[in-house]
Structure formats: C-alpha cells, structure tokens
Design a protein that fits this description.
alpha+beta, Ubiquitin-like (UB roll), 3 domains
Length: 228
C-alpha cells in the first residue's frame, strides 16, 4: 500500500481532531499541539491559509479560527517590526521568510490588505494593549498616508491609487522571471506602496525603472502602453 502524501496526512489529521472535538475543526495553535504538524508543514506548500485547508477537509472555518489566524499574523508582523525598528516592506518580508521558515510568507500578509490597511489593523490591535506604544508609533506614518488617500477620495481627486488617477505618478517596473524580462507600466498615487504590492503578489520583486509625476496619469499611462 502506497504511503499517504503529506497533504493527505494533514487532511486526515484535520478530520480526526475535528471529530474528537465534537465535529469542530481546531485552530492552528491547538492543531499543532495535538498533532505536531507545524504551520511551515502546510503554509505556502498546500494552502495559503488555514481556512483553505479546513475547507478542503470538508469544514467551514468558524469566526474564532479566522480571528485567531489574523491575530497570529499581526503578532508575527509586530515582532518583525520591532526587530527592524520600522514598518517592513515587501522585500524585507521575503528576506525574513528565507532566513526564518517559521515566518509567514509575504503572500499570506497581503491578504490582510494594502500596506496602509495592514498598518491600520496593527494599530487597532495594539490600541487597547499596554506596552505597544512603540508599534503604534511605527504604524503612524503609514496610517496617515491612508487617511490622506481617503481625504483625497472624499474630495474627488482619485479614490483608488491604481485606477481613475489623474494627479499622481506613472511608473515603469522591470520583472525578471528567470532569464525572461518583462516590463510593467501603471499609474498610482504612491509609487513605493504600489511596487511593494506587486512584489508581494509575484515570485520576483518589481524593480522600479522610472516614475514621473503628472497631472494626467491616465493619458501618460495610455501613451506609454502604446509606445511599449
């Protein structure tokens, strides 16, 4: 009889432990305590998040598990913030993952939203906890950008930093996929934020080649697309 694959073994353990828990699947921490199966045994290999594994095993993740996952990610992010003394960007998250396989992948953090949205979540998490004043201070410059973007949206100057933008930047970035090179052209209000977002979503970083400030980002972007 062929040995079970690692993925099937994890699914079987999810079902077994859920049955022993009255039909309710376990959260990440308790599942590890019961089975010895670590986050790094499945995250980024078989599933992006624990909820995906539970669904494949035939369960619907409950709200407690979802909240637990989010808090676990925030706590790991906070630990890394304190290690760096600043708010990490996409490249730094990838390097951390390479040196520490227990640290979640950058793609996992991206599901918590943009850099500004993540900073707001972290600041909210820390707000009513003692000893997190340093973390709130590191988040403040990032959350202020989000507030500025929302104010611009309220005044009709472009709600989405990547679409409908008139005032802003048009950028060209380079993606190196093995020996293949591809160029990405787009528009945004915040260049660094946008390149970090793209880097989080792709296996390679987006290397910024050029960016120009303009009051007609739509027209300039369209012109660059036609030229390239």
């Amino acid at each position: 009889m062929a040995a079970l694959s690692d993925k099937q073994r994890i699914l079987n353990e999810i079902k077994r432990t859920a049955e022993a828990n009255g039909g309710v699947p376990l959260g990440v921490s308790r599942f590890f305590q019961e089975t010895g199966i670590k986050v790094t045994d499945w995250e980024g290999k078989f599933w992006v998040r624990w909820g995906d594994a539970l669904r494949e095993a035939g369960f619907e993740p409950n709200q407690f598990n979802a909240a637990f996952e989010t808090n676990m990610l925030i706590e790991k992010f906070i630990s890394f913030m304190r290690e760096l003394g600043k708010f990490p960007v996409g490249r730094e998250l990838k390097l951390k993952r390479q040196s520490d396989h227990d640290f979640p992948s950058a793609n996992v953090f991206s599901r918590l939203g943009s850099q500004q949205q993540l900073a707001a979540k972290i600041a909210g998490y820390c707000e009513n906890r003692e000893g997190f004043e340093d973390v709130i201070a590191l988040c403040k410059p990032i959350t202020e950008r989000l507030n500025n973007l929302q104010q611009k949206s309220d005044h009709g100057s472009g709600a989405d930093p990547t679409s409908g933008t008139k005032d802003g930047f048009v950028y060209m970035g380079l993606l190196k996929l093995g020996r293949e090179k591809r160029y990405k052209i787009g528009k945004t209000i915040l260049v660094e934020r946008r390149t970090d977002q793209i880097s989080l979503q792709l296996p390679e970083d987006l290397e910024l080649v050029h960016a120009i400030s303009t009051d007609d980002a739509n027209g300039i972007e369209d012109y660059w697309h036609r030229k390239h």
